[in-house]
Here is the input.
Amino acid sequence: MLVLTRRQGESVRIGPDVRVTVVASTGGQVRIAIDAPEEVAIFREEIFERVASANVEAASNVSTNLSGLGSKRGFRAMKSGGMGNG
Here is the structure.
């Protein structure tokens, strides 16, 4: 991890396209402005973690729901149940 000291109005560049500027510093908080291309996703850490956790949970639910498709019973249900042209 790189730790830098910046004053209000000073910036840090991340690659050629991203600029992070210190807008204000009061008490224990720092306000920053991020200038980046539209295709660069920018999230607060807590939101990023929440979305990642929800994605993992959703993926495990899909895996669980699809686990019966490999069984003979699941295959018969697909053939006789009208799922697809089977």
